[in-house]
Amino acid sequence: MGPVPPRTRRRGLPSTAARTARKLGEIRRAQLITTYGVGAMIAVENESFLVRGIDSWDVSEAPFISEPRLAWQLGVSGFRMPPAPDPDSARDGVRAVRFPEMYSCPHCHRLQPFRKFNSPVGRAECSTCQESLVPSRFVIACTHGHLEDFPYWKWVHRGNRTPSGACGGQLSFQADGSTASLRAVLIGCSCGVEKVSMEGSFRRQALRDLGIRCSGRRPWLKDAPAESCQEPPRTLQRGSSSVWFPVMHSALSIPPWSQGIAKLVAPFYDRFKEEDPASIKAYVRIGKLLLHHPKYTEDDVVAEVERRRAAETAAAEQADDTEAAKRAGDYRRKLYEGEYRSLSKPHPEDAEEEQEFVCEPPTTPIDALRSSHGLTQVMLVKRLREVRALQSFRRVDEPSPADSQLRQAAISQTKPNWLPAFEVSGEGVFLRLDPERLRIWEEQPEQVARATRIRENHERLLSARAGDSDKPVPPSPATPRFLLLHALAHTLINEWSLDGGYPAASLRERLYSDEDMAGVLIYTATSDSAGSLGGVVAQGEPDRLAASLRAALHRASWCSNDPLCMESEASGADSLNMAACHACLLLPETSCENNNILLDRAALVGTPDGRVPGFFTR
Fold first, then answer.
1. pLDDT in tens, 372-426
2. Which residues 6+ apart lie within 8 Å of 473 measured at CB?
3. CA angle 503, 34, 65 (to 5 degrees)
4. pLDDT surpasses 60 at 17
5. CA-wise closest residue to 458 among 567, 602, 565, 578
6. From 124, 397, 446, 492, which residue has the greatest number of CB atoms within 10 Å?
7. Measured between alpha carbons, how far is 116 from 170 in angstroms, rounded to an integer?
8. Residue 284 pLDDT
C-alpha cells in the first residue's frame, strides 16, 4: 500500500453551519455553580475554556429563583438559574473564552499561542501535522484570584539577559512519558539555549526568584483591565482543584416565605416593589394573578409587597451598620436562627397549599430517646427546599472566614444585582439536644480543654489567613457544643448510609450551635435518584432512631486506627481535629459544611480511660 496522501484542507469562508456557535460540551446547571462556575476551566475534548463572568451571560430566559432571606443577606435582589442550552443552535447563554492560550503539538512539539497554529474553524489541530493540539498543562495564579499562562519563555531563558521574546526562537514542549515527574517535561527554544525541565517550578519562590510578578489579569471578565497586585504568583496544574474554589451560600425556604401569598407574590416582586398600591392592584386584575387563588384578595397582594419592602429595608440598614457588619458570620447566624425556630415548630402538611416546607413530630413519643440519649425533640422534615448561590471564588488556598476583600475574586466587572443559583428539594430529620443536660456536660473541664486546643489552632490559622487586613478576625466556633453536634451529624450520616441505603455523599448536615441553639439537621437534597423518597424521614421514627443511635455510638467507640486516633493531640489539616480520621468520622466533602474540620469523637463517647466524659457515655 502506498503512502496515504494528506487530508485536503478548504480555507474558504466558513459555511452557515460553521458560523453558528458550535457545541463545545455539556454540563448541568448545578455544575455552573458548584464545579464549573465563573472563573473555572473546563476541559472539552482536546481544548480548554474559561467560564466568563455573569455580566456576559444571556439570562433573558433564565428562570428566577426566589429566596428573600438569602438575597437580603448577600445584598442582591434575587437569584437566577444558569441559562439552559438550546441543542438546536448550540447556544446556552453562558459565555466562555479559550484558556490557557498556550498549546503544544505532540508531533512537532511546538509550543505557542493557539492562534499561531492556524487551526481549521471549530477544531484544535496543528495545521502542519494534522495532529490534535494539547492545551498547556501549567498556569500561574495568585491568592487574589488573578490567572495567566505559565511564562515558558522566561523559564527556559532564565539566567540569560535577552529581553522577553527577543531571541526570535520557537519554543518546544516535550514530555517523554518515561516518568510521571516534572523532570520528564522539557521546555526548549530553537535559539540554542539548553532545554530545561519543569522540575522546581512549583516551589513557592520559584517564580519570584525569576523576577516574575503577578500581572493582575482576569481573563474570565471580558475587557477587564489588569489590576495592581503585589501577591506572588504560584504555578498550578491546569486541572488542579486549587485553581478554583467556589464560595457558596445556601438557605432553607421556611415559612412564611415558602408558602401562601408570599410564594405567589415572589415572581412579581421586582415589578411590584416600586409601584403604588393602585398600580399593583391594576396589574393583579389585568394579569389575573388570583384567578386560581380565590382565597386571596388584591389587598393581600399589596400587604405582602409592603411586608417585603419593610423586611428588605431593615436588612439593608442592618448591613450598613458598621458594628453589625464587623460581627463575623453575622449573616449566617441570622439565617440559621430563622431556620432553627422553624424546625423547632410543627408545620403540618396542608393539602390546599403548595408547600416547600413540611415539618412534623413523629407520631410516637420520644420519651425513651430523651432519657437514654438526651434528645429533647425530633422533627421529621418531610419536605424542604434549599437554594444554593455562588457569590465569588478563590484560587490557590481554599476559602476561609478570615479572607480579606482582595481574595474575593469577582464573578462580574460591576457589582451584580443578582447571583447564579440553583434549588434542590429533599427531606430530613432534625434533632435537638436537651439544653440542661448539654449545659452540664459542656462545662466539664476535660471537654473544655480539648475544645480550647482545637479553637486555638483554628484562630491561629484564621489570624494567619487574615494577614494585614483591617477585617476583624472571626472567632472560631470550636466549642464543646459545636464539636458534639458536628461529631453527632457525621456519625449518623455514616450510620444511615449503611442502614438506610443512601450514599454518604447524598446526605448533608446543617449545624445549629449557639448559646440558645443546639440542633442538627441531616437531610438529602439532590436532583438524582437519591432525592426525596421518604427513606431519610423513616430514619427519624423513634424506634428506628434509637437503634441507629445505639449502633452509631457503638461504632464510634472504637476506630480501626485506635489507640492512635483517640489519643492524638491533634489531627487533620492544620491540626483542626482531635479524634477523627477517615476510618471513623470524616465524610465526603459535599456532606460536611465545615470541610471535615472541628471534629472530635471523644465528645460523643469519651475516652476509653474515662478521663474525658462523652455526652452519650452513660
1. 899 999 999 999 999 999 999 999 998 888 888 888 899 999 888 899 999 998 9
2. 328, 402, 459, 462, 463, 466
3. 105
4. no
5. 578
6. 492
7. 11
8. 82
- Quick check: 183 and 252 in contact, CB under 8 A? no
Instruction: Report, in angstroms and rounded to the nearest whole number, the Rg of the chain calculated over CA atoms.
Output: 28
- In our burial notation (b when 16+ CB lie closer than 10 A, e otherwise), range 256-290 reads ebbbbbbbbbbebbeebeeeeeeebbebbeeeebb
Using left for φ > 0, alpha for ψ between -120 and 50, and beta otherwise, residue 243 falls in alpha
The chain-wide mean pLDDT, for the chain, equals 85
Strand partners, 111: 104
Give the 3-state secondary structure of 75-87.
CCCEEECCCCCEC
- Short-list 196, 212, 108, CA closest to 150: 212
What the block records as the C-alpha cell of 489 is 451529624
Helix (H) or strand (E) holding 342: helix 330-343
d(CA 618, CA 613): 9
For cell 480501626, what's the residue?
A: 560
Residues 66-76 pLDDT 10s: 898 898 888 88
pLDDT digits (tens, 9 = 90+) for 198-237: 999 998 888 888 888 999 999 999 989 999 998 999 999 9
Model-level pTM?
Answer: 0.86
